Amino acid sequence: MLDPDFLRRLRVMTSQREIALIFDEIQCGLGRTGHFFAYESVGVVPDMLTLAKPLAGGLPMGAVLVAEEIAAAIQPGDHGTTFGGGPFVAAVANHVVDRIADPKLLEAVRENGNWLGEQLQVIARRSGKVRAIRGTGFIWGLDVVESANEVVKRGWDEGLLALTAGEHTVRLLPPLVTDRQDLARGVRILEKILSE
Question: Domains along the chain?
Answer without folding.
Answer: 4-100 (3.40.640.10), 103-195 (3.90.1150.10)
